[in-house]
Amino acid sequence: MIVVMKVDATVAQIDHMAQRITALGLTPQVIHGKHQTVIAALGQERAGLTEVLEPGDGVEKVLPIMAPYKRASSELTRERTVVKARGLEVGGARVTVIAGPCSVESEEQIVVLARELKDLGATGLRGGAFKPRTSPYSFQGHKELGLKMLATARGETGLAIVTEVMAPEHVPMVSEYADVLQIGARNMQNFSLLKRAGRARKPVLLKRGMSATLEEFLMAAEYIMSEGNYDVILCERGVRTFADHTRNTLDLSVVPAVQRLSHLPIIVDPSHGTGKRNKVTPLSRAAVAVGADGLIVEVHPDPDRALSDGQQSLFPEQFEALMAEVREIAKVLKRTIADPVADPEARRPIPVPEGAGSVTAR
Ligand code: PEP
Ligand code: MN
């Protein structure tokens, strides 16, 4: 339910309506727009609420939120969300590139690589300390030691750290070191993890499950947001299909689909999305062209010796070439690639694409 306040509604009227919404057992979220204030009344909707809320002082009208994901829906706000973590900004006018190895392997590896990636234009450093591996015998990550190595790399470069958290009980520990908590594809519907991350004070990078529909993906984001954390970055990382020329099929069409239905930023992972080094750069170009807010790319100084995902990791010089190409592609869309140094321009919100809010036309 969205309570649209009149243009000249007073602060007292807005506060009063927020209190009435609370008294009805719903959670009010006041959104101050450029011209008008709206109050989202979130929670279990029931018949008769419109009739109760509409006569309130200062109320212009009451509208239902049609989508099942209320907080993630573009019906909630027409402004696109920009998620910020240190110099990393996702969802603004600039396209953000997060890069790094699949796993954090040693302090030297991550520090030397982080410096290089920053010089090449990455604004975020990725690297797994907790690794979700298909085999229990494969390298599982250096865990807290790996988090400390990431923190050292951040200390050296200032790059924001993006790293995975696999278990609800690890959220406090990973939050101590990370700037962005990654929830992996295999955990997209781990509801206890989503809820715990929703209570963390760090932005969440939510990867799409390998068989998740768009609605399931947005409902997973809703779980995080329903606990109060609105800083959610969506990430398309490929879904499982019959295709066997790639590890996954990168569903780039989900980018404009998300942008119609949600105000949340969406980035693309062409590394897991293809699983093949030679396809990472072409799909990165395509992701920027389709309008993604950013990329998350695996880069390794010596991919053949990587402890995980070497076959899809770029050599640093390939990453350099990728950056040069996506810079050119971004220009066509009147966007630029974010600079490692935070830029006020990056905070400029970009408008919701036409037709946003339509829950039928995907
Ligand atoms: C990763 O980012 O290394 C990873 C395991 O990703 P995903 O959850 O998308 O497979
Ligand atoms: Mn990986």
What is the oligomer described by this structure? single chain
The count of strands amounts to 15
Low-confidence stretches: 344-362
- Helix fraction bin: 25-40%
Shape descriptor: elongated
Say which molecules are bound, naming each kind only once.
phosphoenolpyruvate, manganese (II) ion
Strand content: 15-25%
Sheet of most strands: 8 strands, parallel, barrel
Spatial gap, N to C terminus: 22 Å
Mean pLDDT value: 93
Radius of gyration: 21 Å
Class derived from helix and strand content: alpha/beta
How would you describe the overall organization of this protein?
The chain has 362 residues and is an alpha/beta fold. It has eleven helices and 15 strands. An eight-stranded parallel β-barrel has the order 7-8-9-10-11-12-13-14, surrounded by seven helices. The longest helix has 17 residues, at 316-332. The radius of gyration is 21 Å and the shape is elongated. Manganese (II) ion is lined by residues 102, 272, 298, 308-309.
